[in-house]
């Protein structure tokens, strides 16, 4: 599951607009828990932090560090392709993120990086309720962080405000970059969507996330159920690949529509007022639409947006009556209790579904969301523009996202961002869902939060209000799209964000 929903605070806070004059002088601050970057006050720019080869590394041999064995994989590249030679002894960097799994993953990797580089890495973490505000404040005032690991939408906001820098000059520095970097190994959609912003590579992908289609494998493979489905529909029962197939299958498994259904509901998801929009966006791209285009203009008030919203409304017929109140825990528990045939959810559902207390343990299958264009979430790691140790910071970022070190962070619930790690037999055996996760990440097109700097939270609120009104039956889909488009246009125009 993306952290936005683990937090609660990120999506529940209401945001206030900031005047253009204040934004120009002080940078943008979006209140309480979601504050994005304005103008950097560091007095430094990317050029002043341009990478250079470390003179102390000349003639030194790489520091050999023995890598751990993780899931049967002996990690080898512990010196970044021979580029870490203890040359950063006496130096220190500070990496900031949210407390929890991300913090632990960074600390676990830092142990090996410190041995190879000679440097000290301090990981500062903040509680879920305050980490965005704390990190934002430091980026604009104290400048004590060298690197940050944050949700993608935040990183892009920082890039717009000049608070994080382009990584391309460091990658182009042959004396600095690891020969094993291999940018082509990143899942292309992740490197593009997570890392690139306005022709700059402002971050490396760190933690991927995407909506997955979970289904009751035991039901779909049951001969009697398959026979019943064929008798009622004239079709073979299979895992749905299109919206039409999904609707027909969900109707079959809904007991109020089919008394012979072995479960109560054909479909469910979490759909409270922080997450209902994903029922819509899971089909929006599939039908050819977007939330915003490359020019930051709304791109959903069209046939694609209407079809996706109408289908989202249809799905409520097959879902629990309390659907629009279901959060992460409530929705997952309902599925684990065996009451639902199909569910769209973030990958973390598998932990609940396969728990010893789950009634569906060992009975769950997974696939790409019907339509083949699932909604994506995710986190990236970026370098601040105010760092005093840019080379060292770059090397740490490169290190923790490298092929072998990615395997280390899998232990801390950070799935891979590199294609090669999804191909490792050891990881495929340990995580049977990885092939589906790879397919889903490859096909994802729309982010869980509109990727518009500064105003993403406000756009979330607008989208949630519109989708909720349709799902509750208080507004027609086309009217909701009209209102949403008008509000998007006004908010984005007020932010003054333009593509280059």
TrEMBL record:
**Ranges in a coiled coil:** none
**Matches recorded under Gene3D superfamilies:** Periplasmic binding protein-like II
Q: Which region is the signal sequence?
A: 1-37
What CDD domains does the annotation carry? PBP2_TMBP_like
Database matches in SUPFAM superfamilies: Periplasmic binding protein-like II (SSF53850)
Q: Is rRNA-binding included in the keywords of this UniProt record?
A: no
Record flagged with keyword Transmembrane helix:
no
**Keyword set for this entry?**
Signal, Transport
Give the top-rank taxon of the lineage listed in the UniProt record for this protein. Answer: Bacteria
Concerning its family, UniProt says: Belongs to the bacterial solute-binding protein 1 family.
UniProt name for this protein = Sugar ABC transporter substrate-binding protein
């Amino acid at each position: 599951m993306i952290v936005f929903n683990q937090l609660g605070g990120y999506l529940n806070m209401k945001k206030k607009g900031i005047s253009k004059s204040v934004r120009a002088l002080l940078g943008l601050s979006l209140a309480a828990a979601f504050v994005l970057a304005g103008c950097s006050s560091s007095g430094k720019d990317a050029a002043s932090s341009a990478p250079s080869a470390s003179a102390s590394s000349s003639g030194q041999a790489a520091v050999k560090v023995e890598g751990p064995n993780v899931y049967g994989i002996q990690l080898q590249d512990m010196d970044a392709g021979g580029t870490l030679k203890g040359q950063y002894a006496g130096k220190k960097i500070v990496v900031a993120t949210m407390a929890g799994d991300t913090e632990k993953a960074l600390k676990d990797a830092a142990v090996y990086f410190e041995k190879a580089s000679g440097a000290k890495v301090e990981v500062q973490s903040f509680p879920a309720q305050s980490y965005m505000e704390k990190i934002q404040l430091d980026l604009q005032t104290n400048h004590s962080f060298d690197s940050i690991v944050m949700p993608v939408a935040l990183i892009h906001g920082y890039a717009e405000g000049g608070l994080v820098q382009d990584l391309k000059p460091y990658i182009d520095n042959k004396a600095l970059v690891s020969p094993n970097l291999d940018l082509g190994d990143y899942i292309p959609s992740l490197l593009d969507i997570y890392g690139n912003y306005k022709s700059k590579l402002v971050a490396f992908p760190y933690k991927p996330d995407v909506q997955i289609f979970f289904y009751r494998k035991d039901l779909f493979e049951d001969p009697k159920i398959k026979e019943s489905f064929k008798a009622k529909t004239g079709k073979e029962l299979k895992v749905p690949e299109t919206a039409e197939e999904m609707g027909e299958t969900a109707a079959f498994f809904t007991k109020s529509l089919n008394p012979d259904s072995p479960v109560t509901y054909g479909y469910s998801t979490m759909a409270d007022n922080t997450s209902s929009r994903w029922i819509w966006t899971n089909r929006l791209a599939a039908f050819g639409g977007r939330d915003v285009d490359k020019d930051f203009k709304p791109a959903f008030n069209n046939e694609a947006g209407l079809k996706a919203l109408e289908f989202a409304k249809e799905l409520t017929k097959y879902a629990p009556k309390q659907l629009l109140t279901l959060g992460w825990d409530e929705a997952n528990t309902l599925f684990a209790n065996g009451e639902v045939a199909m569910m769209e959810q973030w990958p973390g559902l598998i932990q609940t579904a396969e728990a010893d207390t789950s009634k569906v343990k060992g009975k769950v299958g997974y696939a790409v969301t019907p339509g083949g264009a699932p909604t994506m979430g995710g986190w990236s790691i970026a370098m601040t523009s105010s760092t005093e140790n840019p080379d060292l910071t770059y090397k740490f970022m490169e290190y923790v996202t490298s092929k072998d070190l990615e395997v280390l962070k899998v232990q801390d619930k950070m799935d891979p961002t590199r294609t090669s790690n999804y191909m490792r037999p050891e990881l495929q055996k340990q995580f049977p869902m990885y092939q589906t996760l790879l397919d889903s990440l490859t096909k994802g097109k729309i982010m869980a939060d509109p990727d518009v700097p500064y105003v993403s939270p406000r756009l979330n609120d607008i989208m949630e209000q519109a989708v909720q009104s349709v799902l509750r039956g208080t507004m027609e889909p086309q009217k909701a799209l009209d209102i949403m488009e008008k509000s998007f246009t006004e908010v984005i125009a007020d932010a003054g964000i333009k593509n280059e």
